[in-house]
Batch of 2 targets.
Target 1
Amino acid sequence: MSKQAFKVLGKPVPPPDSYEKVTGTAPYTFDMELPGMLYAKLVTSTEPHARIKSIDYSKALQVPGVRIVATGRDFPVRIGIYVGDRDMLAIEKALWVGHPVAAVVAESIKAAEKAIDLVEVEYDPLPPVFDVEEALKPDAPLLHPDIANYKISPAFKPVPGTNIANQFRMIKGEGEAGFDKADLVIEKTFKMPFLHHAYMETWNTIAHYKVTGDIEIWTSSQSPYAPRYLMAMSLGVPVGKIKMRIPYVGGGFGGKAGVLIEPLVAMLSKKAGYKPVKLVMSRAEQMRSMPVIAGYKAYAKIGFSKDGKIVAYKVRFLFDTGAFADYTVNVARTAGYACTGVYDMPNVYCESLAIYTNKVPTTAIRGFGYPENHWVLERLMDMAARELRMDPVKIRSINLLRPGDPTSTTGYGSPLRADAGDIQGVLKTSAELIEWDKEPEQPKEPWKIRAKGIAMSLKGPSQPPNAVDAAIVKFNEDASVDILVATGNYGQGTVNALRMIVAEAFDLPLDKVHITWMNSTEWMPYTWQTVGSRSTFTVGQALLRAVEDAKRQIFDIASAVLKVPADQLELADGKVYVKGEPWMSIPLTEIVNGYTFPNGQVLGGPIIGRGIHSPGILSYLDPDTGQALPINPETGHSEPGHATVFYTFGSTAVEVELDLLTGDIKVLKATQVYDIGRVINPLTAKGQAIGGLIMGMSRALYEELIFDDSGGVANPNFSFYYVARAKDIPDDIRIKFLETPQADGPFGARGFSENVMIAVIPAIANAIERATGVSITELPMTHERVWRAIKEQRPDLIEKALKAFQEWKNASQG
Amino acid sequence: MSAPYFTLPEFKYVKPGSLEEALEILDEHGEEAKIMNGGIGVVAFLKERLMEAEYIVDIKGIPELKKIEYIPGKGLYVGATTTVNELIEFLEKSPEVREKYRALYEASTHLADAILRNRATIVGDILEGLPYMDAPGPALIFEAEMHAVSKSGERWVPVDGIVMGPMMTQLQPNEIVTEIIFKEPPEGARSGYVKFASRTEYGIVNVAALVAHPNDPGKRVVKIAYTGATALPYRAREAEELFKKPEPFGKLVEEAVKVIQDNVEVLEDPYASADFRKYLMGILTTQLLVKLARGEW
Amino acid sequence: MAGRMITLRLNGQERRVEVEDNETLLYVLRYKLKEMSVKSACWKGECGLCTVLMDGKPVKSCMVLAVEADGSDIVTATGLVKDGELSPIQKAFVEHGALQCGFCTPAFVVAAHHFLQKNPNPTREQVKEFLSGLICRCTGYAQIIDAIMDAAKYYRGEQKASP
Ligand SMILES: Cc1cc2nc3c(=O)[nH]c(=O)nc-3n(C[C@H](O)[C@H](O)[C@H](O)COP(=O)(O)OP(=O)(O)OC[C@H]3O[C@@H](n4cnc5c(N)ncnc54)[C@H](O)[C@@H]3O)c2cc1C
C-alpha cells in the first residue's frame, strides 16, 4: 500500500466531542443524577490484616437520611477478570489498610459521610506481610488460603497454600545454559514502585437494581462488556439483564479496565430498596482503597558475546499485586512473555510471579507489563554498551528482531510477520531526530552535564486468544452513517479514528459519519474490551468488514435497479455509479431504506452492515515452557501461534541535564518515533505521543506510592504523589511516525497509544548512564536516589563537581 | 492528608464588617471560633478533620486588613487579608520595592500556584505552620512582625518563634493579626529565595537569604532562614554572626554552612532523608549567598 | 443547620440559592446550581479542575465556601460561549488537540481565558508557570500551551474572533 490519495485519512481532524468538552457540557458519570438517587460511602479498614470480629453500625443508622449499611456478609462474592480474588466489601478478613469493610447508603453525601464515622469495627489482628520476598517464605501469613476455590481463567496458575497468585515461566533455546557462551555477563536488580494511574475522573458508578431484576449501570469504565460479564457471573444474575452504560469517561490508562465497583453499587441499590445509588471515590479512597499499579522487584542477568550479540537472558519478576491480583496476574505474565523486548535472543529463561501482600490491590495499566520489562531490558542494553564500549544505537541495531525471518523469534518462539514494521527504521529515525552523533552543548556550570539517551520499545495488545469484536454501520434517511461500536471513548481518539476509517471506506464526507457518546451493551455490539492499544486495529477491521457488508447490500439493490452486475458498481460521493459511466447513478438516499420504483413497489429495506474481528492466529502459551502453542494443527499447516495480533515498534530519545550536586534531572529535549502503519489522524496521534512522553517522564522522575508502617498508602493526594505539571515539560518535543502498513490493519494501521510511554523511562536513565557511567536501577529517579547512586558508583564525579563548585565559589572572594 | 471526605464538618460562618465586631465574636467564643482568612489552610484542615470549629470567622470583610504600603526607612506593610497575588502585583508595579524585597517576591511567586494565590495570604501561610511553607523564610530575614489586636490590647509579635506547629501559634485565640511588616532591609542589601521541591508540591529545602556589603566586613550583613528542611521555620542566627568576622566572604560562607549543618535539626521523611536535606542546605545556601554577593542573583 | 439565601451571578444570570455554611462553592455550583462544567478530581486544592472565575479571578471552588460567594460574579467554561459561538480560546483548544478525555478541559479553558485577558503577550514559560496549578493527565500539556500561545492573538486584538 504505497502513497495513496486519501480524502479523510491523514488529516488533523479534532474529535467531534471536543466541542462539548471545551464548553464543559460533555456529561460524565460524575455529572449524572437519577430521580430518587441515593449516595453511598465506604468505611475502610484501619488494620493491614485482621479478622473482622464485629461491625456495629447501629449509631450510623441513627443519622438522619441514612437508609442502609451493608457489610461483606450482605454480598459474599469474589470477582476478577483473571483471578476471581477480589471482594467488594471485606469477607471476614480485612487485607490491607484501606480495604472497604462496610458501605453506608444515605439520602445525601453529607449524611453518608457523617455516618461512616459512626460505624464501629472490631478487628482481631493477624500478622501482615508487606514485602514480596517475605510473602514467598514458607511461614508467611497467607492472604488467600482458599484460592483453590476461586474462579481462575485458563492461562493462569495460582499456587494454593502460598501467596503466589500466578506463576509464569518461559524457556527458550537452552534457557539458562545459554550463559556458557557469554563473554560478558551483567547481573542487576531492578525496582519499580507502586503507582497511581491518576485519571482525573475518579471511579464512580450509578447502579439501579430494578424490581424486575434488570440492573442499569452508568459507570466511568473503559468498556462495557467484560465488566458486565464478570458482574453477572459473580452476582449470579443473567448477563442480559444487566445494561451497562458508559457516558464520557475522564481518563482510564488501564485503571478502568476490568470490573470496578459496579457489582457493589448494584447490590447496594438492591439492598436500599431498588433505588438508584451513586458511589464516587474521593482521591484518597481511590489511592488507598481501590486498585493501583503493581510495583516489582526483578533479578536480571544478561549475557553478550564480544561482538555485542545477546546470547542469553534470564529475568525473574516478583510483582507485588497487593491484596488482590485480579488483573495484575496478566500484567505479570505479559511482562514475562514479552521480556525479550525488541531483541532476538537465542536463549531465555524467564519467571514472573504475581505475589500477594497486605497492601492496596493492583490492576491493569497503560503499557501492561511492557514499561515494566523494558525498564529492565533497555537499561541492561546500555549497561552492556558501556562495558563493551559500543554505541547504544549500534548494540541495539545488531540485536533487533527481524520481521519476516522465521529464525528470528520472540521469547515465546514466534517469528514476526514480514509487515510487522520497520524496526531498524524506527531506531535510525530516532537517532536522527535527537541528532545522536552531535555532542550536546554543555552548560557553563561545570557540575552540570548534558547527555543523550535512547531506548526502544515494542507493544502489542495482551488479550486472550479468543477476544473478538463486532461493529455495525447503519444508515440514516439522509444517507449519513451511524457507527455502532462498544469501543470506549476516554480521550484516546480511537472512536474518531474509527469514524475517519468509515468515512474513507464509504467515500463519505466526515460530517456524514456519526458517532455517539453513550456507549452501552444495549445497542452497541460486542467488543471484548477497550484496552491494549487494540481497538483501532481490531474494531477498525470489524468496521471495514461492516462497510463491505453494507456495500454488498447497496450494490445488490443498485444492480437490480441499474441492471448492471454488482461488480461493475462503485460507491462515491454518496452515490452508486456504474464504473466508467458516472452518469448512470443512484443517490444513496434512494437506497438506504430500500429502493422505491415509480409504481411504489419497494426493493430491499434498511441497509445495515455488520463485521467482526476474530484474531484466529493467537494461541495460549505452553504452561511449562511459555512457548506459543501451535495453531492450525488439524489443517496440517501447523505453525507457532502468536501472543498478540500486532506489535508496534517505537523509540524514545532524550537529552537531559543532570546536576551532579543535587541529583536534579531535567529533560530538555525528547523525541518519539513509532511505526504505526498508517497515521489516521495526525492531530490525535501527536496528542498520544506527547501525552505518553510526559506520563513516562513523570513516572521516571516523580511518581511513587509511599507506604507507611502499616502498609497503608501514605501519600494518597497530588501534593505528595506528584504528577508532572505544565512547568515540568520540555519545550523541544519532536514526534515522527513511520508508516509501514500491516496488511490486515485498517488501511495498514497499528495501535500505539501505550507504547508511547514505555521507552521514555529507560531512555532518561540511559542518558545518565552514558554521561556518568552511573547505573540507576530503581524508580523514580528522585534527587536523593540519583545523588546517592552517583556518590556510591562514581564518588570521583561528585568530588570533581564539588571541587568545581568550590572554585566557582572562591572566584568571588574579593 | 488521607481523609476520604468531600464535605466539611458543621460550623457557623460569620463575616464581621469591622475589626471591633470581629474581636467581639472572638472574645465571646474563645477556642470555639477560628479565624478564616483566604481559607485555603482552614478549608483543607476542616476537610481532613484536623480542625474543628463552632464558628468560622471570615475576616475578609474587615476593610482595614487589606493594604499594601511601603514606608521608606520603616518597611513594607502587608495587610492580613492581602492576597499573595495582590502582593506580587504590587511588587511588579514598584520595581524599587521589589528589589528591596526580592526574597519575598520570589517566595511569593513560588508559593502554591497562580490560582491558589488569588486567595492565599502571606499572613495565613505563615500562621498555618506546616513545615514547608514559603512565606516564613523571607519573613525571618526581613525581621517581620505581625500586628496582633485583641479586645484587651495590641502588640507587635516577631514572626520568628510565632509558629509552634501546624495551625498552632503563640497568638491568643482572641487575637487577630491585622498586618505584617517586613522591615526595611539594611542599606545595600540584596536578597533571594530558593525553593527546592522533590516530587512534592512543597519544597524539601527552602532558603531565604539576604546579603549586604559582602566584601566590607565592617558593614557586612548576612541573614539566612530555612523552611522545608526543619519542622519550624529556622533562622540561622549563629551562622549569620560569623559574617561579622573580618574574613573573606567565600571562606565565611563555608564556615557558615558548616555551623548550620552542625546545629540544625532537620526533618527526615520519605521525600528526603535528614542527610540529604542537610547536604542540600549547604549547596543551596552557598549558591544563593555567593550569587547574591556577586550580584548574579 | 439553617440555610441562608445567597445571590450570585452565574455566567451572567442572577441566581438565588439556599446554601449551608459548611458547603463549598464547588458543592453548590454542581449540586444546587447544576453547573456540571465545574469538575473536581481531588477536592483539596491540588488538581484545579474546579476552577471558576470569581469576580474576574480564577479560584479553586473546592477551597471557597459558598457563603463567601454571596454577591459575586461567577464565570465557568460554559459561560464563555457567546450566542452559540465558542470563544477564541475554546476554538484554539479544539484546533490544537489540546484535550483528550476532556475532564480537566473546562478548568484549563476558563483559567487560560483569564490569563490571556491579563497577559495577551505571554512567553511559553509564563504560560507553563500559570498552568501549574492545574493537572491534566492525558495531554502532557504541550498542545494546551500551543493553543494558549495561539489564542493570544485574539486577546491582543490582532485577529477577530469569528473569521
Ligand atoms: C494544593 C496546595 C498547594 C500548596 N502549596 C503551597 C506551597 O507551595 N507553599 C506554601 O507556602 N503554601 C502552600 N500551600 C498552602 C497555602 O498557601 C496556605 O494554605 C495559604 O497561604 C494560607 O493562607 P490563607 O489566607 O488561606 O490562610 P487561612 O487558611 O485562612 O488561615 C491559616 C491559619 O492562619 C490563621 N489566620 C489567618 N489569618 C489570620 C489573622 N489575620 N489573624 C489570626 N490568625 C489568622 C487561621 O486561623 C488558620 O489557623 C498550598 C496549599 C494547597 C491546598
Target 2
Amino acid sequence: MIKIENLHKSYPIGKDSLHVLKGLDLHIKEGEFVSIMGSSGSGKSTLLNIVGLLDTHDEGKYYLNGQLIKDLNEKKAAILRNKFLGFVFQSFNLISYKTALENVALPLYYKGMGRKERLKIALEYLEKVGLKDWAEHLPNELSGGQKQRVAIARALVTKPKVVLADEPTGALDSTTTDSVMDLLKEINDEGMTVFVITHEEEVAAQTKRIVRLRDGVIISDKLTQQAKAV
Amino acid sequence: MKFIFDSDSWQEIYGSIRKNKIRTVITIIGVLWGIFLLVVLLGAARGMENGFTKLFGDFATNSVFVWTQSTDTPFKGYQKGRRFRLTDSDIEVLKSEYSDEIKFLAPRNQTNNLLVHDFKSSNYKVSGDYPVLDKIQKKKLLYGRFLNENDILSYAKVTVISEDMYKQLFDKGEEAIGQYIKINAINYKVVGVYGSSNGIDLDGDTAYIPYSTFKKVYNTGNKVDWMVITAAPDVDIEQMESDIILTLKSLHKVHPDDKRAFGSFNLGTQIDKLTGFLTGMQFLTWFVGIATLIAGVFAIGNILLITVKERTKEIGIRRAIGATPASIRQQIILESVFLTTVAGMLGIIFGGSILFAIDAAFGQGPDAALVNPTVNIPIILIAFATLITLGTLIGLIPAHVATIVKPIEALREE
Ligand SMILES: Nc1ncnc2c1ncn2[C@@H]1O[C@H](COP(=O)(O)OP(=O)(O)OP(=O)(O)O)[C@@H](O)[C@H]1O
Ligand SMILES: [Mg+2]
C-alpha cells in the first residue's frame, strides 16, 4: 500500500537546510495498523505529511498504492488525497462554521457527489462514530473527543485506503483516547490501513506494528502483542 | 461553468458570507457606493441636459439670425455710416447659392399695430411671414392652422394669433376661428390660435399674417427686415454664417471687412457652448463614477485577500480532504463576483430610487431644474458588466494567493 525507499527530506532554514528525514525505508501493506513513535522533532509529522501528499520529499522513492509519486501537480495530489487518503489531525481541523454533518460531508462534495446523497452517507458515518444526535451541532459545541470522532468520520467518509492520523489522541484525556483508539481499531478490522503518530506507549501498544524514529532514521520496526494475538 | 449552477457552490458562498458578515457588508457598501454615484450623477447630468433641451424647446437650434445695420467702412464710393436694407432678391440669391447648406430660410417683416375686435383692442407685434416659420419654430396650435402657401399666393387677409391675444381680444368661450379682427383698420380673418411655446420664444405675442399680404398692406416694396436661416444637418453653422454675410456684403457693396454693416446672432454657437459644458459634465460624471467603482472593486479584492489569508487554514483543510486548486479558485472568484453583483444591483436600485426622489422634488413643473433625470439601461448594463468583469479579475488575486501555498503550509498556519 505504502512503500518508501531511501526517503530524504530537508527544510531550508535561511541559508542552511535542516536534514530531517535521512534515508527511510518503510513498507506498509494493505490492512496494517502502524504507529510511529519517536521523540519530538524526530521527523514523524514530516514523514506522515509526505505520505499524505501534503508535502513533497527531496530524494528517494515513494509508491502509493503501487503508483510512484513524483512531480505530482497539486490537482493530481488533491484527487489522490480525496481518493486514497483520510486525515485525522491532532487539532481536529474541523471547519468552524459548518455543522458536524456538513464537515463530514465535505470530502464527498469535492468528490462531486450530490448534496442529498452525501448528507445521507455522512450521517451514516456519524452514526458509526456514535454522534448521530450531534449532527447539527457546530464544532465549538462539541467536546474534544467528539470533535476527533467527527474528524475520523470525515476521514472515513470517502472510504479511503489509508487513514493517516497525526497524534489523534494528543489533545484528549485517557477515556476519550480509548474511545478514539477503539474506533481506529474497528476501522482497521474492516480492512483499512491505519497509520498513526503517537507519543503514548499505551496508544502505540493498541496498534499492530510500531515504527520508532530517531533523528530521521528508523531505529526499530516491530510487531506488537496485538498483531501476534490475531 | 457547471459550478455556477451547482447549489453546493452557493451553499459554500452562503456559509462563508455568513461567517464574514462585516467584511461582506463593507465590500458591498464599497461597490454599492460606486455604482450608486454613477447612477445618480449620470441621471442628474441627464436631467440637466433635458432641462436645457426643454429650454430650447421647439426651436431649431442650428439657426442664425441676420439683419442690417450701417456700414463702418467707406467702400466703392460710398461713405461710411450708410444705411441699407435686405431685399427679396438677396433671399433668392442666398437660396440658390446655398441650397446645400440652408435647410430653411425665413425672411421677415414686422411692425407694431393696434388690434381691434368688437370693443376690445390692444397693441401687438404684427409679422409678415412665410409658412416655413412653423418649421423653424414649431407653433403649438390650439385651434385652426398656421399660414400656408395658398395664403401667400392669394395675398389672403388672414392672421394667426396667440392664446394671450385671444384672451385680450375675445370674450371668454367665444369662437375665434373664422372671426375678423382689425389690424391697422383692415379686417383679417383669424385662422389659427397658438399656445405659448416651450423654451425659446422668438416673437412673443405676435399676429402672423402672410408675407405677401404684409408687403402689400404696409407697402414695404422688396425690403426685408431680417431673416432666420436654419442650417441643414452636419453643416458647420459658423462657416455658413460668415459665408452668407460675405455674399450679402458683395451684393450690397459693403467692404468685406466691415464689422457693423450686418448684424447676426448664431443660436447654434451659443447652444454648442452649453452642450460642451454638458458633455464636460457627463465626462466628469463618468470619470468620478468609474473611479469610485474601481476603488470599490479593489476594496472587494483587498478584503477578499485579507479573508483568504485569514482562511488559509480552512483552505488547507479543504485541500487536505481533496479540494483541487481549481475548485478553491472557482469558489473565491464566484464569491467575488457574487458580492460585486449583489452590491451592483443594490447600488442601481438605490441610485434609481434617489433619481426618482430627485425627480419628484426638483423635476416637476415648468421651471424644473432637472427634467426627467434618467440613466440609459444599456449604460447601466455596461457598467454592470464592467463591474462583474472587474469583480472576476480582482477575485483572481486572492484566489491565486489561496492556492500557491502548499497545503501543509496552509495547515500549519495558526
Ligand atoms: N516547515 C518547516 N520548516 C522548517 N523546519 C521544519 C518545518 N517543519 C518541521 N521542521 C523541523 O523538522 C523537524 C521535524 O519536525 P516534525 O514536525 O516532523 O517532528 P515531529 O516528530 O512530528 O515532532 P512532534 O512530536 O513534536 O510533533 C523539527 O526539527 C522541526 O523543527
Ligand atoms: Mg508532529
